Amino acid sequence: MTHFYPIGTANTPWTAANKTQWFESQSIKRSYLKEVLEPINQLSDIYTVEQYGALPIDAVRYPLMVLKSKNWINDLPTILITGGVHGYETSGVQGALLFAKQSAQHYESLFNFVIVPCVSPWGYEVVNRWNPNAIDPNRSFYTDSPSEESAYLMDMVAALSTEVYGHFDLHETTDSDETEFRPALAARDGKEYEAGMIPDGFYTVDNSEAPCDALQKAIIDSVREVTHIAPADHNNQIIGSDVVQEGVIRYPLKALSLCAGLSGARFCTTTEVYPDSPKVDSNNCNLAQVAAIEGALKYLSKQM
């Protein structure tokens, strides 16, 4: 079906002028300072707080921040947690902060933590999937990335003094994926928009290049205690991908240049919370992200 997005011409890729028009249509809807930076700085007594970059659109307003275990022990495996790669996916950001504040300390004798609560702060403020240049950061984790958000994160991870053992990338699948973001993607790329279905519930994306069924199951079982798991559709799929076990699909993370594949961690997952369900609220969504992380950590602690 053809979807006439308000920017651009149907079946014609966007020009630079179209991208500028899109950028100028965005507006600030919430505060990165109040909702992310201040909570990060309040954790400075238990984490080392570091700036690893800044967005060129406004380096003062959008510093890129990471929390690292203050009591770093070189012999422990390192866990990378990322949220807000897509800025509009709120529980990815707030769930990472909640885990850092309330739960990480229970595991500090087992793991070192590197926590990036908000990879895309401009996207967080304007509640959008893309960065200011109409680029999806979560398709941009490759050499010479055009996404500053992705490039800075890759450089920070590469500079760590250790390999990443586990990487948990916290996301959401929202109704706005179908009402706004996928239509915008089709318009930007000059393609026809094909409507999809939004799954009602939590699911994960495993790495098809190095799958770990047991890790994903541990995550699903943990989250099940907090919120409902997304069912498969009539084709036994979730968002067009085959369900390999309850609530789990697979993508080739590295080949698709996705965040969860950037570190090459043996154990990785992308979490997907559904915040638009009538069965949940924002607190429940944040708790689901924490439950996903804890389920993964409990599984990994048994492998050591």
Automatic annotation (TrEMBL):
Keywords: Hydrolase, Metal-binding, Zinc
InterPro entries linked to this entry: AstE_AspA_cat, Peptidase_M14
Pfam families according to UniProt: AstE_AspA_cat
Coiled coil: none
Chain ranges of the Peptidase M14 domain: 24-304
Names of required cofactors: Zn(2+)
Protein family membership: Belongs to the peptidase M14 family.
Name under which the protein is recorded: M14 family metallocarboxypeptidase
Source organism: Vibrio ulleungensis
